[in-house]
Amino acid sequence: MTSEKGDEFHNLTFSQREDKAPLPEAIKLGHVPRKFRHLAWFYIDRDIEKQGHFTFGGSYYTDDFENCGIGSILKSYQFDIQLKPHDEIPAAEPSEDRRFSREILLEGEYHDVLTFVEYILRHRYCSTELYGSLIEAFEESPIAYFVEKINGQPTLIPRINRETGEATRRAIKVVKDNDMDGAATHLREAAEHMNAGQYADSIADSIHAVESVARAICPESKTLGPALKSLEKDQILKHPALKQAFEKLYAYTSDEQGIRHALTDKDAADVGLDEAIFMFGACASFAAYLTQKHRQQARKREPDTP
Fold first, then answer.
1. pTM summary value
2. 184: CB partners within 8 A, 6+ apart
3. Integer Cα distance of 217 and 290 in angstroms
4. Average pLDDT for residues 154-175, to the nearest whole number?
5. Exposure winner among 32, 128, 287, 304, fewest CB in 10 A?
């Protein structure tokens, strides 16, 4: 017989047990995942290499690229953003530009990285190829920001607000603090899948987190419906519209046109980062809500103490 504290819990390391359901990188505001840093560095470095000439004696741009290419962008960045006086900005030189860009992208604080990338996207000398590649980096990475043009200017926008992220974190804590270890493990795995860009797998684990709580509430069933009916019967889940909303969310994931059917054919799963973020937050909150209601139900059944 497998309990909520099953093998999947005991096989975790101590660190994982202590924080086994972290927020995915995709909803961590103030964080730039390593994958995005590497992709941005690759694309910018490739642009420098295409425009530069490298010899045993050094490297140089042609006049056109020095004044109208990536070299010019990086010189402007030092003047506009780093506020260096013009006589302290070195001449555009590919090898030095590679070092300069690499240091910002791989070692800089998150705000330095995003400011740097946004500046390049906005610059009139940013090539069409580099622009498209950097947009692709946002789409391929589990990062909490996306690019939207506002008044013609590419602008970085958070995918969620900080309050939503904190609400999700609190929901995960409720699940963990009430010994729903199976659900917490699924949420951790959902976060890991999202960080790896495996969005369909992330959604599946988010859903499994809710099912795990449902089994704790109603052990004889493996689905959510009986758990909701049990809560409704005991007058804990009182509002019918709320119950219907939960049922519809679960039906969406169970329907043959929904997520879990799509998971049988990964090519057919039309889901991406935004869907994975939504389902992670929704399922974490749903699992926490059911956990709290189950706790209330248990307290009602406790005999009164004299």
1. 0.70
2. 20, 21, 172, 175, 176, 209
3. 8
4. 86
5. 304
